[in-house]
Amino acid sequence: MTDGISLEKFSSFADLCDFTFIVNGKAFRVHRIVFAAQSPIFAKIITNNQNEAVIEDMNEDTFDEVKKYLYSGKVHVTDKNDRSLLTAGERFELKEIVAAVQLFRNCRMEPMKAKELEQLKIKFDEAKYLYKMTRDRYSTRNPFSQLPSRFY
């Protein structure tokens, strides 16, 4: 962002936080508006006129990653956290986290498959280029304008 402040920077203003999640004994101070605006489940939890909520069945690192996502729009999926992030994404109806985990899982493949995929991409790019050239060549108003002059 060039004008204003990003939500990621906003997350560093702990004194302006107005809600606390307690996850396995660890406190996470958050801004209600950030969480409620992005998840209907968080909205229900946060709008109950209390200042904190306890989440006992989630890993603190997973919740921290969800918090980072809600403030930055970025999620860091690894082999260690993909299962717990998928569960959290589904639980809190965070479709982007679910999609990121699914994409991460789909992209993990054996080297041979990766090589085959690269070859397929090259073929696809060549076909796309040929299609574009053909389309551009014959997309003028006069279909005969691209023919040599001896044909018309």
3D structure, described in words:
By secondary structure, the chain is mostly helical. The protein has two domains: 7-107, Potassium Channel Kv1.1, Chain A; 110-139. Helices cover 53% and strands 9% of the residues. The chain is built from seven helices and three strands; from the N terminus they run H-E-E-H-H-E-H-H-H-H. It has helices at 7-10, 32-38, 40-46, 60-72, 82-91, 95-107, 111-137, and strands at 19-23, 26-30, 52-55. It has a three-stranded mixed sheet. Helix 2 runs antiparallel to helix 3 and helix 5 runs antiparallel to helix 6. The longest helix has 27 residues, at 111-137. The radius of gyration is 25 Å and the shape is elongated. The chain starts with 6 loop residues before the first helix and ends in a 15-residue tail after the last helix. Residues 17-79 form the BTB domain. This is BTB domain-containing protein. InterPro entries: BTB-POZ/Galectin-3-binding (IPR051481), BTB/POZ_dom (IPR000210), SKP1/BTB/POZ_sf (IPR011333).
